[in-house]
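ARCHIVE CARD
CATEGORY: sequence design from structure
SOURCE FIELD: tokenized fold
FIELD CONTENT:
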């Protein structure tokens, strides 16, 4: 079972010869990227209006409000289909003391958190430009990162995500699903962080309750298939892509882009068993 958006970008023969000069950022931080016009328009319609301007007709596009470092990630993905993975482990060349190991773990967590934030910012950019292929590739990398590291979204990152994404965003759903499904670990800190996110992130509580009401079956799978903290890559988790539909957190306007039989993977929303009564029948019963 594969999703077409999991595959790398294929440039094909329609890249063309027209190249745009895209300047990203302000002042000394600005960087300029040379991008094939056809390739850019192939993945998004966002730039069409910029290309239609007087500067755009001369092949010049200016994007002062974007982060050059994040745009570079988009640029690399555009030409290679690759998105850098977050560091989730470290290796030791020689025996180390407990203090040295703890220092390496702290350093790793810092690098992991910084890279995940960049990945989330890349996702924000994908939502802004409406690049579904980029969104789906990026969320897979984010999902894998948390699964391999063995952690979930912290409150600071949750707030950032809810501030920078739209209602119904798949990244929002992943945040909620990953954090809520792991509350069975008995971790008081995670529960406190969920409460904090409900207070700090506008819309978080409402979307969390909606997700819970629609996904009770996931809690059943979690109980049936188990989860071992010492073997975090095994068992059922909303972060374990091998246990879910390949397109579970993907966005597809065209269902043909999803994997074959994707519709059969959808989890039906739980519905009330009571049949709706008309106002007339209620009046008669009164």
């Amino acid at each position: 079972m594969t999703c077409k958006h999991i595959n790398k970008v294929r440039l094909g023969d329609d890249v063309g010869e027209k190249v745009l000069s895209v300047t990203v950022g302000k002042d000394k931080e600005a960087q300029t990227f040379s991008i094939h016009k056809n390739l850019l328009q192939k993945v998004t319609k966002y730039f069409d209006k910029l290309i239609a301007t007087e500067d755009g007709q001369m092949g010049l596009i200016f994007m002062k409000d974007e982060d050059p470092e994040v745009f570079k990630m988009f640029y690399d993905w555009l030409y290679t289909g690759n998105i850098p993975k977050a560091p989730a482990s470290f290796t030791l060349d020689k025996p180390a003391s407990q203090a040295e190991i703890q220092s390496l773990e702290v350093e790793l967590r810092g690098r992991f958190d910084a890279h995940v934030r960049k990945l989330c910012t890349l996702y924000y950019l994908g939502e802004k430009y409406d690049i579904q292929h980029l969104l789906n590739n990026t969320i897979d990398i984010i999902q894998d990162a948390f699964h391999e590291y063995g952690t979930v979204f912290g409150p600071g990152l949750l707030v950032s995500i809810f501030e920078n994404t739209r209602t119904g965003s798949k990244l929002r759903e992943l945040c909620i699903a990953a954090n809520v499904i792991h509350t069975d670990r008995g971790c008081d800190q995670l529960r406190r962080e969920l409460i904090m996110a409900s207070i700090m992130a506008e819309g978080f509580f409402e979307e969390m309750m909606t997700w819970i009401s629609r996904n009770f079956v996931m809690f059943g799978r979690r109980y049936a298939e188990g989860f071992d903290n010492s073997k975090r890559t095994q068992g059922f988790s909303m972060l374990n892509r091998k246990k879910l539909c390949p397109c579970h957190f993907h966005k597809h306007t065209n269902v043909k882009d999803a994997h074959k039989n994707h519709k059969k993977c959808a989890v039906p929303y739980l519905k009330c068993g009571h049949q709706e009564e008309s106002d007339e029948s209620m009046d008669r019963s009164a």
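CARD ANNOTATION: Residues 98-129 form the longest helix (32 residues). The two ends are 55 Å apart (CA to CA).
SHELF: design records, drawer C
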